[in-house]
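S., here's the first fold you wanted:
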Amino acid sequence: MIPDISYALTWLQSNPNIFKNITRGIERETLRITENGNMPNTDHPYSMGSALTHKWITTDFSEILLEFITPKSNDLNYSLSFLNDLHKYTNKNIENEYLWPFSFPYFMNTNCSIKLAKYGKSNIAKMKTLYRKGLKNRYGDFMNIISGVHYNFSLPINFWRKWKNIKDIKHEKHIISSEYLKIIRNYHKFGWIIPYLFGASPAIYPSFIKNKKYSIKFKKSQNGLLYLPWSTSLRLSTIGHRNHDTKKTNITFNYLQEYINFLRHATNTPSKKFKKIGLKDNLGKLKQINTNLLQMENEFYTHIRPKQIIKKNESLSDALEERGIRYIEVRSLDINPFSPIGIDKKQILFLDLFLIWCLLIDSPNMNHSEFEYCKKNWNIITLEGRKPNQKIHINNKYEKEKLITISSKIFKSLYQVAIYLDQYSYKDPYKKVCKEFSKYFEYPELTYSSKILSEILKNGIKTTGLNLAKKYKEKLISEKMTVLSDKIMHKEFISSHKKQNKIEKNDKLSFEEYLKKYT
């Protein structure tokens, strides 16, 4: 099941320090909450800058769902310090509010009103809000405020040119895109290892699935929680943040044009389900951008996505077709409740190691049946990953093997890569995280999901979440910023509002005219 890596190791030996300039970016989502752990009825604070144009702090689905974005960097410590500073600044500026430390929100009342994110009076602002209105009508409020961490990863051009011996620049984008798709296929095949290690959403409050039908048989705790004793990440399960079944789309990530064609097909093909919602309400107000399978290309949710920097008025599919894959976006990370910023350095080091391994090992094209077996493994791990003697599918077939046996083979291969990544580091960071996380399969009680489940079964989600939120706020506001400053943040606050005003003044089309290209 585990591909041979001997050729890649020989190549690494001849190309030392080839991974020196990995470029990273982190996006962390989090809900603002009140002192009592409830949803505030407040708008995104004006003092935080314009959610439309701020470079580092914005909102996602709701006014209370913050998103922190670090600039791309090849210095991991800088990226983490930057994210830390954004959390310090925000905690100081939200007064009596806190940042919820879990992926799943806490709700006692399903009738509470969730404010859609607003971005101003411009056409693009109205479009962003309408898109979120469509998400609300398609999937419901609660699914859209599940939080996660996205990790953006790219390898330096020097690596690609040596790895693939690229001499003809004309074919460079196609070769690099093909290699990134290798990572994506292997991530779907072996990436269940990430929710096993870092999944941290094994329980939910009953209100979250009220009036919904699921075949999952939850247990109920004394404090009213629904949980699965061996679950790792309900966020990545069928009740979490997802939309389309790949069984219907037949997407397998073998070729870039295949992915581009899928995005274009999905954004231009009507959906029977979404047509039933209707395009407008009784007052003639739009309920969604369109009734297609996807309103926009970003609506396609998957564990990992190919990405390219988008220019003004350009779609992702056009950008990918024109310039190929620039980086990949890992979307399968739950909020780490044991970190004040939702992710820590050890996780990122392991992600680096794992993604590089996914590139170095072989990755044959997958047919749809093989892809479905990959999905089954993810489902097993998210719902019952820590179950004693758990088994998963091997070689994309019905045959199964013990999880601990498979993971042992993977970590042995990962460690061989870690040796080369650490050859110029006296602290051996990659070997250390490899050794540490390999133990989680032998001792499942070490996993994030096991540790947080013990805590919330004992004290409840609300109490545990509030205690952590208050603890982290106290810590963060007591610390000075290291790479940012109040002066830099104030400058961005002023700049972001000026940019928003400029966009609003420069609008020439009516919103109806602007909307035509999406309908």
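And the second, which I think is the more interesting of the pair:
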Amino acid sequence: MPDTTPTGLTRLAFGGDYNPEQWPETVWHEDVRLMREAGVTMVSVGIFSWALLEPSPGEFDFGWLDRLLDLLHENGIRVGLGTPTVAPPAWFYREHPDALPVTADGTRYEFGSRGAICHSNTDYRSAAAAITTQLATRYGDHPALALWHVHNEYGVPVSACYCESCAAHFRRRLVATYGTVEQLNEAWGTAFWGQRYTDFAQINPPRVTPTAGNPTQALDYKRFTDATIRENFVRERDILHRLSPGVPVTTNFMTALSQCDSIDYWAWGREVDLVTNDHYLITDGRRTHVNLAMAADITRSVAGGAPWLLLEHSTSGVNWQPRNPAKAPGQMARNSLGHVARGSDGAMFFQWRQSRRGAEKFHSAMLPHGGTDTRVWREVVELGAAVDSLSAIRGTRTQADVAVLWDWQSWWAQNLQWRPSEDHDPRERADAFYEALYDRHLTVDFAHPEADLSAYPLVVVPALYLMTEAAGNNLREYVENGGTLVVSYFSGIVDEHDAVHEGPHPGALRDVLGLTVEEFSPLLKDERIRITGPDGSELSGDVWSEFVVPRGAETVWTYADGLAAGHPAITRHRLGEGSAWYVSTRLDVHGLDVLLGWAADDARIAPRADLPHDVEVVRRTGESGTFLFVINHSALDAKVPLEAHGTELLTGERAAGHLGVPAGAVRVVRLDG
């Protein structure tokens, strides 16, 4: 069986995408010398090199790659070798123009970017398998090889194709899923609007229609698209396993909820040997370090809690946002070590040397246009030394306090057409609840709704519109056995076919919540409502309200105005040994903090008021010890209490009682014992 860590890598991974084909070979030796100066331990190579490796059909040129891998090996640098199947050559598209994807309105994309692939196309599949076989045969036992990196960022920028090849492939999947067209009609609700089918041959992808199409058809097409892309990964992975046994195979995910919404990472996490992730800050004025922590926690959760690897992030600014600010001094280290704190066994970047040409020439790199006499380079060298000093944490696991339930398929369903309010954004609710937990200094695991939740005293459901009966039963058992559950509005409404659960809302959750919802009452734009608590306190909500009827739940806060005035707004249901909270409006930051404070008390989670705001405290533990990461994102020096003595690994100083962390700095304490 393949290993789950990069082969031959005894330290944390530090390095980035290396694209030497953009430079004369005379530059390579300078690159390697500087990599050693920076403490680079691994680079990703060959991701976009198909056109160089196979310059014409069936004719291969591996000489340059031979020389490169040998040079890296001679200098002690491990290699994550890419299969370049994200960017087929121009000659391939010339011969197979139907491998270019088609949009829902019938437009076929052109060659000239990246990721323009119809994943159902048999010619693409054959060509991808052929180049992967060639690479695995030649380099499967190369002494520099640490990792196979298949494709690149599946689903970005194109996931779905609507061509005739995809239509035929979709029909085959539907036959395998439903068996008969009668069962498909039942699942899709085709009696509505006269959409009934009498033969699978009548079914097409959900292309452009005059008004809203069938939502279950659209949901199944998203599942089909994800599964089809995953089939191609598995095909390449299996070739690599066969020809390069023992070397782990991965592909770089993009789990940040804002960056890729077409991939079901719960399913993908089961297929890779090592979970890896790319993360780039969305600099829209929000607290970017919170989204970074969230992305890292999601990635670790997809990995089942095991160590994972940050395969790409940026040293400074990126190039693809409307405005691309540079990172502040020290921010690169905080970003990198924030991922490490939350489970990454290293910090890799895109890319090593900043490009002079092409679409990403203004994307920052480890070695910038300005060379070694730059702030970025000096910070890279400092970070390399810091990462090296943390080698003892390799293989340890991050410890979480609470769980947040998330399901990509529910997100897909929620975002289909014609929902009660376009202002309800499930990702926004996930972000908001996560930020509230972060500000209470609670480390979060994400979990699938049907996962075992028994290890968590508190489970939060920010937005799960689609929920199976099995998931509902799972949450009921969790609460009955002593867990504390918090559920936000418009959750548990439909089943896996986007059909409303039989009976009153909230369907799959009404038993555990001890209530029913007679009617949704979304609010108008900028409309706000007040809710009052048992002590006369007042909270504020917007976007949503509901007519809630308790069926065993107690009313804790009540609507003070709006159409639902006098009705319950927030309830608590004591069930078995636990309790389930429900909030039927969109609370603001203060309201979420109050709600989660009550729920944390139910869960017997002690408040952590002694920890400063925007000072992140995360723990990793394993056979090598317990490591406390403290990351100060604030502009003030901070002091954090320590429960035991220890050694601070970045400075070598002893720490006892309290740990001082300067503004903008990171400290990592290896606790004694």
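Why I say that: The radius of gyration is 26 Å. DSSP finds 17 helices and 29 strands in the chain.

Talk tomorrow,
H.
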